[in-house]
Write a structure and sequence with these properties.
Blueprint lengths: L7 H8 L5 H26 L4 H17 L1 H6 L6 H21 L11 E3 L17 E3 H10 L6 H12 L5 H5 L8 H23 L4
Antiparallel strand pairs: 1-2
Length: 208
């Protein structure tokens, strides 16, 4: 489908469905300058203004758009370009401010519990040896531990967008700052999944 022909409200509604990679590509083409501008402005006002921090903010904005896609995107009904641009500018700016307010807070959702079986589509292996309840904070702790090298933020973003928010590898690969193909995204997911599994195996004292 040629999303370049669709109105702004129709495009935002389509982006509420993570499988529509073509819609996300057009979203990025149309609106990335607005998102980048909001991140830059807030970073200079509240942070260091460094390019690395701005990149962090941009990725956080995209993650939040994905996390709250039903609330943020699907409900927008005004086809006017100026309405869409204004709406996204305000939303991106608010998310950037939230980034600084929550920078030292616990990860979002850390007080929720989830079963590792929710991650049963992890590539490689069953979840039998991980059959216990974990908080999302525990999963995030292992994720952060295994993403301390270069591209750590990117790898954490890939993991969360795929497993928490349901984006496909193709949709993730076209987001700014990711910089790898869909196959590359799948490789990141396989590597992190294996590392996190091994962490929990060691913690429970179980082995294959």
């Amino acid at each position: 489908m040629d999303w370049t022909r669709h109105s702004h409200d129709r495009l935002l509604q389509a982006c509420a469905t993570p499988e529509v990679a073509g819609a996300w590509a057009e979203f990025i083409h149309r609106y990335h300058p607005i998102i980048a501008s909001a991140a830059t402005r807030v970073s200079r006002a509240r942070g260091s203004g460094k390019s690395s921090e701005i990149d962090d903010l941009i990725q956080e904005i995209y993650v939040r758009f994905c996390e709250d896609r039903v609330r943020i995107l699907s409900g927008f009904r005004d086809p006017r370009p100026e309405a869409a641009l204004g709406y996204l500018k305000v939303t991106a700016t608010n998310i950037a401010h939230d980034f600084f307010r929550q920078r030292s807070a616990l990860k979002r959702g850390a007080d929720r519990t989830t079963s590792i079986s929710e991650f049963s589509d992890f590539p490689g292996g069953s979840t039998d040896e991980l059959d216990r309840h974990l908080t999302l904070a525990e999963i995030d702790q292992a994720l952060v531990f295994h993403t301390q090298k270069d591209n750590g933020l990117r790898d954490r973003t890939v993991f969360r967008l795929y497993y928490r928010y349901g984006l496909t590898a193709q949709a993730i690969s076209i987001l700014p700052g990711i910089g790898v193909t869909a196959k590359g995204v799948e490789g990141i997911l396989q590597r992190l999944t294996k590392a996190i599994r091994e962490t929990f195996r060691a913690r429970t004292g179980k082995c294959d």
